[in-house]
Structures are given as C-alpha cells and as structure tokens.
Amino acid sequence: MRPRGSIIGQLLATFCVCAVLIGIAAVAGFVTVADQNAATRQATARYTALQRANSQLETAFGTATFAALFYAETGQRGFLAPLTAARAEFAQHLATLRREATPDVRGLIGEQARLGAQWFALAPRAAAVRPGTAAAVALLGRSARLGTAFARATAATQQRLNASINELAATSRDRLEGRLAWSGAALVVAVLLVLAASLSTVYTITRPMRRITATVRRLTAGEHAARVLVTGSAEVRQVAESINIQADESDRLRAAEAESNRLRAMAREAGLRIREHLVARDVLHAAKLAVEQIVDADVAYLRLLEDGHIGSVVGQAPRWLLPAGLIKANLPAGAIDGLRAMFLAQTSQVINDLAGGDTGAIPPPFRQMLLEAGVRAQLITPFGVGGELLGLIVLQRMQAGRPWTPAEVDAMESVAADLGRGLNHARLYEAENRLVEDLKALDTAKSSFFATVSHELRAPLTTIEGYVEMFGDGEAGEVTSQQRQMLEAIDRSTVRLRNLVDDVFTLAKLESGAFTTVMRPVDLTDVIKAAADAVRPSVIAGELALTISATEGELMVDGDASQLDRVVISLLSNAVKFTPKGGCVEVSVFAEGKSAVVRVSDTGIGIPASDQKELFNRFFRASNATGRSIPGTGLGLAIVRMIVVNHGGDVDLTSTEGAGTTVTVWLPLLPPAQP
Fold first, then answer.
1. Residues whose CB is less than 8 angstroms from the CB of residue 72 and which lie 6 or more positions away in sequence, other chains included
2. Neighbour-count burial of 543, counting CB atoms closer than 10 A to its CB (0-12 exposed, 13-18 middle, 19+ buried)
3. Which of 47, 221, 575, 628 has the most crowded CB, counting CB atoms within 10 A?
4. 642 burial level (CB within 10 Å; 0-12, 13-18, 19+)
5. Which of 62, 217, 225, 29 is nearest to 148 (CA)?
6. Whole-angstrom Cα distance, residue 662 to residue 601?
7. Nearest to residue 576, comparing CAs of 545, 549, 610?
8. Are 392 and 369 in contact (CB under 8 A)?
9. How far apart are CA 71 and CA 81, in angstroms?
10. Residue 286: Cβ within 10 Å count
C-alpha cells in the first residue's frame, strides 16, 4: 500500500493523464491524416481520369479535323479513312467524361459534345463535295470555326479541372491543419501537466534533499555524529532513515575496527615478547600474561599436551578446574583429533552461551561441571607448529551476555600462532643446547682418549725401534739377509705407526687447545729452505726434481717456527709421495699485499674433483690414493689447516686429476721494522 503523501503516487497520476492526452492526440492526428489522405487520393484520381479523358477527347477530335483538312487540300479520299475511327474514339471518351464528370464541369463537357456533334455532322457533307469548289471552301470555313470553338471549350474544361484540383488541395490542407491544431493543443496540455508535476516534485524534494545532502557531506567530512531530520514525503523520509541507519552502522563498524586494530597491535607486541625468549618456561609465562592483558576474560590459562593427552595447566588455575588425570579418563575418543583438526584449520571453538544450546563439542559431564562453576562463555584456541598440536589457550567468562567478538578471536589466534612458533623454537634451542653440551663432553673425552693413547703408544714404539736398530747392528748376533729384510719391514711399519701416533697426538693437542704455540718473528724463507733440505733424500729416492723459489731478503711473519716447519714439510712430503718418478715438485714463497704466500705445486696424480671438498677433513683420503695403495693417515692436511688458521691465515687447494696439485698458504706479514 502506497504511504500517504507519496510523491511517486502524484507523479504516477500526472503521467497517466499526460499519457492519455498524448495518446488521444496521437490517435486523432493519425486518423485525420489517414482520412484526409484517402479523400485526397480519391478526388485526385477522379480529376486525373477526367483530365486524361479530356486530353484523349481532344486528340480524337484533332485526328478527325486533320483528316478532313488533308482531304480538302489534296482531294485524296485515303485521308478520310481515319475519320470513322476518330469519331468512335470521340464518342467513347465523351462517354467517359460524362460518366466521371463533377457538377462544376458538366456544362463545359456538354458544350464540347454539342460542338463535336456539329462538326462530325458537317464532315460527311464536306467529304461529298469536290475539293476546291465554292461549296467545299464554305464547308471548310465552317469546319474551322467549329474546331476553334471546340478547342476553346476543351481548354476551358481543362482549366476548370486544374482549378478544381487546386481547390481540393487547399481544402484538404485547411482541414488537416485544423485537426492537427487540436492534436497539438492536447500535446501542449500534456506538456504543461508534466511541467507542473515536475515543478511540484522539485519543490517537494529539493528542500529536504538539500538537508540530506548537507548531512551526507558532514558525515563524509568526518562529523560522524551528524544525522538527517526525518521529515517530508514518504520517499524522503525513507531516504533520511536509510542514511541515519547507515551512519549508525558506520559508527558501529568504526568502533569494531578500532577495537580490532587495538587487539591486533597488542597481539603483535605480545608475539614479539613471546618469541624473544629461548626457554620454554619463559615463553609460556609471557604468553599467559599476554592473553590476560589482551582479552577481558574472567579466567585465562594454558593447557599443554603431554604424551598426546591434555596435561598440566600453565598459570594459576581455578579451584574447580578438573585435573589432567580426570580429563584424560573422561575425555571421549577422538576429542584430541578434533582439537588437532581445529588447529590445522587455524580456527577456535567459540561458545557464547554455555547455558543455552551453544555447547559446541563439549562433552556433557564437562559442560555440567563448567555450568556449576558459573562459566557462561568459553573460547578455546589450539596452538602448535607445523602439524603438531602443542596445547590450548582457554578463556572463560562468568557473566551472560558477554559474547566473544571476532576481533578477540582473531587476536587469540594470532597469539596462538606466535606461541606455537616460540614454544617450538625454545624447545629446539634447549634440545640443541643439551646436544651441544653432550657433543662438547664427547669431544673432550675423544681428545683426552687420543692424547692418552698416543702417549701410551710412544713408549712401546720407542722400545720396538730400539730393538730393531740393535738387531740391525748385529748386537744380538749375525743377521742373515732374510732376517734383515724382515727387520726393514718392521722398521717401515714402526715408522708409519709413529707418524700416525704423532699426527693423532698433534691433532688432539690442537683441538683441545693444549698445543703450545710460541709466537715470534719467523723468516719464512729460512723455513722453506730447511723443509726442502729435510725432504731432499725422499726427492732423490723418488727420482724427482725439486725447485725452490724465494724472494730476496727476509719475509717475516709472526708464528711458531716448529709448527710452520711442520706445515711446509707436510705439504712437501705429500707432493713427493703422490708424484711419480720423473715428476717435478716446486715450492715458492713471496709477498702478496699484506700476506706472505707459500705455494707447493707438483705434477703428481692429482685429486678427483668429487674428493677435493673433503680433503681437509680428518682421516679423509682421496679415492685415487687409496686405490693405488699409497700409504697415509688422512690427518696431514687437517693438521696443516688448523695450524694455518691458528696463525690467522688461510689455505686453499686446486688440483686436476692426472695433472698435479697446488696448495697455497697465506699468512699475515709483519709490518716492516721502524728505524
């Protein structure tokens, strides 16, 4: 039902009247034009037929007169042949004129008929006399006078027909203009009605719409308390009420957004505080404080999962809270899976009316216990990491009518996400610390074991070496050649074992920090030359070429001479050991920027590319060396690297299998002595 004072109703009525008037005008105009067109076409067709018949009548009379004239001039009777046909056509066209004639031309047509009848009555007499005679001349003169009179009568008839057509056109135009004037008047009335209705509508709508527009502008400018005065027509009142409702809803959404932003900011700050701790106990304590500060809840606590079941409470739990053992005993099957599914979906269990039908998935015994304790609303948010559920955040309210808002739920889910990551990180950190301590203890025990075993092996090795030397010198009697070969084999194995024991002992002392390092200025040129002299017997025995390249003058570094000597000897020994007969070994020392560089190159068997990244690891040996049964412990390069690093330097190795190896050592140069 249309409300009273509806502008739409008034406009509809006005437009209906206008539509009726416009329809009447359009129908009247159409009927007028159609009738007038039909009448005009009919009259025009009639007068056109009269004009055509009059012209044909004139043509037939002209044919007859020309035939008679030619006969009179020539005397040939052949010219009289068309006279009969022309007379028949004249009679036919005259009958058409009389049948179609209007009253205003009937007299003129009658005159034409009289004159034509007189001429055609004279024609036989003219044909009977001989041409050129006085009688023929007299008849010809009378014929000419009748022809002239007939022509004037025909012209008068034609003129009258043209005048009738013009009069008919003028009459039709006047009649059409009159009827169209009435149609135009109806259209003018309709337009005036529309204009009046429009002005009335504008006056009715404009004033209240100005007030509405001003209020909307105030709301847009930030004056959120502005409201529209509800007055005017029903439509205007509806618009005003709608704007007021939208303004109220905007205020509500703005307040909710502000609250959501506040809670979100608090949740972010809480997440930072939670994740900054590296101890699980501190992480849980920070999360408990954050939950209590962010959400206005009467009860707030955390439940941890222990062995796949709900376990202990973090924080001060209420007296009525069920212990973990009782919950485990009464928890229905699949409850933990439901909580885990909730965690994976990143959702929460929201119960706003525990006393009503909003109970979620809480088992009836637990629901009854909560109701007896006075709980009316509960929010449970699971937390964890990856796919592992670690625990629950539980919030409860004791008063009805305090539902959980979406902003509060989002804030708790944000805290739960940070809590899961922080707790997992703290537990991993604690586990790593325990593992590091265990590894340190194991490494210390290993180093101690290596040092002890190496020390204990040296004494029997010394005894074995002494007795082998005594047997070799013949102190126990003459030694046969076979026995000497055996003693040489024992001596070689003893040397290899002593080298292994020395390397293990040195490595253990370096790793444990018990290796004594005496740092003092050392000339690397002297170290290189001494190391070359030490390995020269092996070079000669292997039929190799040894090249030494050293800069002029001193090349001073701060280091332990014995350790640096061990580094160079170890590198040269490896080069000699892995270079076949006829190969070359080169050692060079030079300055490069602020570093002293020692480089040892050989043309030996090289090292496979897949083995090169492992060469400085303890006990690692290249695959081609083990395949050729070349002896070694796999500790030499590891010891070299540790010594170089302890001296503040660096070491690098490049090699091509089958072409040779180059090892480069960089050590910090001592600044030149000041005078």
1. 126, 131, 136, 140
2. exposed
3. 575
4. buried
5. 62
6. 4
7. 545
8. no
9. 10
10. 21
- CA 402 to CA 405: how far, in whole Å? 9
Q: Residue 389 — φ and ψ, nearest 5°? A: -85, 125
Q: What is the pLDDT of residues 216-266, one digit of tens each?
A: 888 888 888 888 888 777 777 888 888 889 888 888 888 888 878 888 888
Cα–Cα nearest to 657, from 587, 581, 578: 578
Measured from the Cβ of residue 333, the count of other Cβ atoms closer than 10 Å reads 6
Structure tokens at 295: 């959400």
Express each pLDDT in 284-301 by its tens digit: 888 888 888 888 888 888
* Residue carrying the six token digits 């606590």: 301
Which range among 150-164, 432-446, 616-630, 652-666 shows the weakest confidence by mean pLDDT? 616-630
Query: For residue 423, what is the DSSP state?
Result: H
Q: For the segment 182-197, what is each residue's pLDDT rounded down to a tens digit? A: 767 767 777 777 777 6
Backbone angles phi, psi at 656, to 5 degrees: -130, 125
What are the residues facing 601 on neighbouring strands? 586, 662
Structure token pair of residue 415: 């805290």
CA distance 310 to 293: 25
CB atoms within 10 A of CB 656: 12
SS3 59: helix
- Tell me the two tokens of residue 578: 């892995």
For residues 409 and 415, give the distance between their C-alpha atoms in angstroms, rounded to a whole number.
10
| Burial of residue 174 (number of CB atoms within 10 Å: 0-12, 13-18, 19+) | exposed
Angle in degrees, CA 529, 534, 535, rounded to 5 = 105
Query: Measured on CA atoms in the order 636, 639, 641, 644, is the torsion positive or negative?
Result: negative
Nearby residues of 285 by Cβ (< 8 Å), 6 or more positions away? 314
DSSP state of 405: P
Residue with tokens 């586990």: 431
| Residue 650 to residue 641: CA distance in whole angstroms | 7
Which residues have C-beta within 8 Å of that of residue 318, sequence separation ≥ 6? Answer: 299, 373
User: Residue ranges of the alpha helices (H) in 524-560?
Assistant: 524-541
The mean pLDDT value for 126-139 works out to 70
Burial class (CB in 10 A: 0-12, 13-18, 19+), 559: buried
Residue type for position 577: K
352: nearest Cα among 311, 304, 405: 405
| In the chain, % of residues over pLDDT 70 | 75
643 close to 662: Cβ distance less than 8 angstroms? no
- Amino acid of residue 11: L
Rounded Cα–Cα distance for residues 567 and 515 (Å): 15
The two structure tokens encoding residue 153: 């009568």
d(CA 272, CA 417): 12
Assessment of whether the complete model's pTM goes beyond 0.70: no
- Tell me if 564 sits within 8 A of 643, measured CB to CB: yes
Report which of 172, 415, 134, 377 is spatially closest to residue 272, judged by C-alpha positions: 415
Distance between CA 306 and CA 674 in Å, rounded? 70
Residue 674's contacts (CB-CB under 8 Å, 6 or more residues apart) are none
* Amino acid present at 533: D
In terms of residues, how long is the chain? 675
Angle CA(73)–CA(77)–CA(80) in degrees, nearest 5? 90
CA atoms within 13 A on the CB side of 55: 7
Reading phi first (left if > 0) and then psi (alpha if -120 to 50, else beta), residue 509 is in: alpha
Residue 158 confidence (pLDDT): 78
State the DSSP H helix or E strand holding residue 312, giving kind and residue range, or none if neither: strand 309-314
